[in-house]
Design brief:
The protein has 239 residues and is an alpha+beta fold. It has three domains: 56 residues, Structural Genomics Hypothetical 15.5 Kd Protein In mrcA-pckA Intergenic Region, Chain A (Roll), CATH 3.10.290; 84 residues, 2-Layer Sandwich (Alpha-Beta Plaits), CATH 3.30.70.580; 78 residues, Alpha-Beta Plaits. The chain contains seven helices and 15 strands. The strands form three sheets. Strands 7, 8, 9, 10, 11, 12, 13, 14 and 15 form a nine-stranded mixed β-sheet that branches. Strands 3-2-5-6 form a four-stranded antiparallel β-sheet. Helix 1 packs across helix 2. The structure holds uracil. Uracil (URA) binds next to helix 6.
């Protein structure tokens, strides 16, 4: 059994603000188990009571999981004084859940960013002990070659002396501008860009394409998002 106040449930899910719930109750617009409810603070069992608002059944959920195809120019933050943030892209009905980004992508990095209000899941995914893989597609200024594959496999030394864990580099195109996919199992600040700097090359475009076993949905254009299915949420923690 999981009991919550009626006004809390409806505001958490973005249906109404708490004061609107009060009004709607007065107007007889809300029923629980087929009985009109006047008490907006009524304790409701979210696992079995049926709430109807304005004739519409309310399906309760505590957590929200969103896959966003992050565009360039947005900060992976929940607040910023001057820059655009990823939450600016998300509809108000989802913002009621107070989602936050799971980890960060740089302002100019595109691709898979998961937003959730599930702090425990986020913590598990980001835990350095879990080594959840993250795969990036990148365009690199300079010819990426076998030497880089071997170096990344061994671990490279970043500008602050940190030696990276073994990572897997796949070369898609080796030219003046190369194209690669890189899978890393940790998330140091600017990690991919700094790894390429350590072998004398520059990342000129970066996009995350997967996290755990969850791949970015190719049908999502930049700036588009959708909710994850339960199965997809599980994929996030698989290696
Ligand atoms: N590595 C980077 O350098 N930037 C990102 O946004 C993600 C990984």
């Amino acid at each position: 059994m999981s009991k919550l106040r009626l006004d809390k449930i409806l505001s958490h899910m973005g249906y109404l603000s708490r004061s609107e719930v009060k009004k709607a109750c007065k107007q007889g617009l809300i029923s629980v188990n087929n009985k009109i409810v006047k008490d907006y603070g009524l304790q409701v069992d979210t696992t079995k009571d049926e709430i109807i608002l304005n004739g519409e059944k309310v399906v309760y959920k505590e957590f929200i999981y969103i896959m966003l195809n992050k565009p360039d120019g947005y900060l992976s933050a929940t607040y910023d004084k001057k820059d655009k943030i990823v939450l600016d892209l998300i509809d108000k009905k989802y913002l009621a859940f107070e989602p936050f980004p799971v980890g960060r992508l740089d302002k100019d990095t595109e691709g898979l960013l998961v937003l959730t209000n599930d702090g425990k899941l986020s913590h598990r995914i980001l835990s350095p002990k879990k080594h959840i893989p993250k795969t990036y597609y990148a365009k690199i200024k300079g010819k990426v070659d076998e030497f880089d594959i071997k170096e990344f496999e061994k671990g490279v030394t970043l500008d602050d002396g940190y030696v990276t864990m073994p990572s897997t580099l796949k070369i898609l195109k080796s030219d003046e501008i190369s194209e690669i996919e890189l899978t890393i199992h940790e998330g140091k600040f600017h990690q991919v860009k700094r790894m390429f700097e350590s072998v004398g090359k520059k990342v000129i475009y970066l996009k995350r394409i997967s996290m755990g076993k969850l791949e970015l949905d190719k049908n999502l254009a930049l700036g588009e998002y959708r909710e994850l299915t339960e199965e997809e949420v599980k994929l996030l923690e698989e290696r």
